[in-house]
Design goal:
Blueprint lengths: L1 H13 L4 H25 L5 H5 L7 E4 L4 E6 L5 E5 L2 H13 L10 H14 L6 E9 L2 E7 L8
């Protein structure tokens, strides 16, 4: 292998192209390729979360909180909500993740998303309902499950 590199270096120098330049270009190409792959992978939904995300109905409900305006989706049949930050915040999260190859943790904290889900319940006449659990569906979407008190029959 060393003989091949030395041969290429000698012949490339004779044509005013240095092996260092080619190596530098290759390294840059590899870095850009890795960044593109990381950005693409960080934006993709997992195979488990995509079908679940498709079960939510539209339209989106906007819930204004002190730090952001959140997007909330009601599930068609389950007592669950899908919550995401505003589109601007979502784009900023994606840009930071892509620029740092997924190393930056710029996600909106789960507690803020949960507070927006609870506020949505209050806004829609379900203030007595409580969030029981939540988890990350796909960055930056969270799913929250809730329970409502049983309505006792009137006698």
């Amino acid at each position: 292998m060393c003989e091949v590199v030395q041969y290429l270096d000698r012949h490339l120098k004779s044509s005013n192209i240095s092996l260092g330049n080619i190596e530098g270009r290759l390294v840059k190409t590899k870095i850009l390729t890795a960044a593109g792959i990381a950005a693409t992978l960080s934006a993709c939904a997992t195979t488990e979360s995509l079908p679940r995300m498709n079960t939510y109905k539209f339209p989106v409900h906007h819930v204004k909180m002190a730090d952001d305006t959140y997007r909330v989706y009601d599930h068609k049949t389950d007592n669950s909500l899908m919550v995401a930050p505003s589109l601007g915040t979502t784009m900023a999260i994606g840009a930071a993740q892509g620029a740092t190859l997924g190393l930056a943790d710029t996600m909106t904290p789960e507690k803020r998303l949960e507070a927006a889900a609870q506020q949505h319940l209050a806004n829609t006449g379900r203030g007595g309902c409580k969030i029981t659990r939540g988890y990350l569906l796909q960055k930056p979407l969270f799913e929250f499950w809730y329970e409502c008190p049983a309505v006792s029959p009137k006698v």
